[in-house]
UniProtKB/TrEMBL annotation:
GO terms for molecular function: N-acetylmuramoyl-L-alanine amidase activity. This is N-acetylmuramoyl-L-alanine amidase. InterPro entries: MurNAc-LAA_cat, N-acetylmuramoyl_amidase_3. GO terms for biological process: peptidoglycan catabolic process. The lineage of its organism: Bacteria, Pseudomonadati, Bacteroidota, Cytophagia, Cytophagales. Residues 229-347 form the MurNAc-LAA domain.
């Protein structure tokens, strides 16, 4: 009897071990929330969150949060196949996405292969949570102007390269959820990069394919002329401009992500507050002993904020000269987390309007 029970127990243990071996695994890193972990591994929280929680119940906090340093099982990417002769709404969405173009970023495999890079294309449309929303994404500087420069060991870190990488990651996430996205600055060959040190170049173009002028005012005027033309084309739609920058302060000054808006723009203020709320919550979860000090304030003199016809938010992502802030940029997962958190704020703003 005892031997039979022992044999049954061994069979159960081996069955569980075999079952768990079928799943991919991912390590929870500092700054990760469940959504961030899922997005980083190509999974959509709206489709996979419940299964993730069921698979990892024993390794989650009381509030279903991650424990940094632990390994988690990942749900399978594949979805159930529709019955023969039937087309699901998701299949229709995917078919429509393959034929759609988001003016400057196409959802077909061709253009993303150039803009996102082969490792991150094509862009799958996972849902339509942002359908009807139009975003103008403007990474700071570019072309002949690399922006702020930080020293990282023997390497130089250029503001425009890191602002661009976060922005192009954000563009991809927005497109995954059905948004129309315009990258107002486009690099024809960099794509999304996972290296720590992003090599400087000067070949970026202003949408649609304009050479970027040397003059700072000329660059901003060129960019905003295009934004406002597109705004008129999409008249009546929900439209927002996000300008992403990296600050340069004294090397000893560690800063959190902060936000500017125009004093007369209630929509810009609301958008900034929605993104700020996500960052506050994420920092509280990831670093409970360290308060988040990023803030929302008025800066109406900024050219993009002042001249944009779409409600605008100007973001400073950190100090490129500070060693602690540099980890926010040189770790690819951290750049993706920035993009994911911004997306969550944008989604909250869009659905709560």
């Amino acid at each position: 009897m005892r031997s039979a029970l022992l044999l049954g127990l061994l069979l159960l243990i081996s069955t569980l071990a075999f079952s768990q071996s079928k799943y991919r695994r991912a390590l929870a890193k500092p700054g990760d929330g469940v959504n961030t972990l899922l997005y980083r591994n190509g999974l959509n929280p709206s489709q996979h969150l419940r299964q993730f929680q069921q698979l990892n119940r024993a390794n989650l906090t009381k509030r279903n949060g991650l424990i940094i340093g632990r390994t988690y099982l990942l749900p399978h990417r594949s979805a159930p196949k529709p019955a023969a002769g039937k087309t699901t709404s998701r299949a229709k969405t995917a078919a429509g996405a393959r034929a759609a173009t988001s003016h400057g970023i196409s959802t077909t495999p061709l253009l993303p292969a150039k803009l996102f890079g082969p490792a991150y294309s094509p862009v799958p449309v996972r849902d339509r949570a942002l359908r009807g929303a139009v975003y103008y994404l403007s990474p700071g500087h570019a072309g002949p102007d690399p922006g702020a420069i930080g020293q990282y060991g023997p390497h130089k870190l250029a503001e425009d390269e890191y602002a661009y990488d976060v922005t192009i990651r954000l563009a991809r996430v927005l497109m995954e959820h059905g948004a129309t996205v315009y990258m107002m600055v486009q690099d024809p060959n960099d794509g999304i990069r996972d290296e720590s040190v992003l090599k400087m170049d000067y070949d970026e173009l202003t949408y649609p394919q304009q050479r970027i002028p040397l003059s700072q005012l000329g660059r901003l005027r060129q960019r905003m002329t295009q934004v406002n033309k597109l705004y008129a084309r999409h008249k009546g739609a929900y439209q927002r401009l996000l300008s992403l920058h990296v600050d340069s302060r004294s090397a000893g000054q560690n800063i959190d992500v902060f936000f500017y808006h125009h004093q007369n723009s209630q929509a810009g203020l609301r958008l900034a507050k929605n993104i700020h709320k996500v960052f506050t919550a994420r920092y509280k979860r990831a670093q409970p002993t360290r308060p988040y000090k990023g803030n929302v304030s008025v800066r109406s003199s900024l050219y993009e904020v002042r001249t944009s016809h779409a409600p605008a938010v100007f973001m400073e992502l950190g100090n490129i000269r500070n060693s602690k802030d540099q980890r926010r940029f040189v770790v690819a997962d951290n750049r993706q987390a920035l993009a994911n958190w911004i997306y969550e704020g944008l989604l909250a703003d869009y659905t709560g309007r």
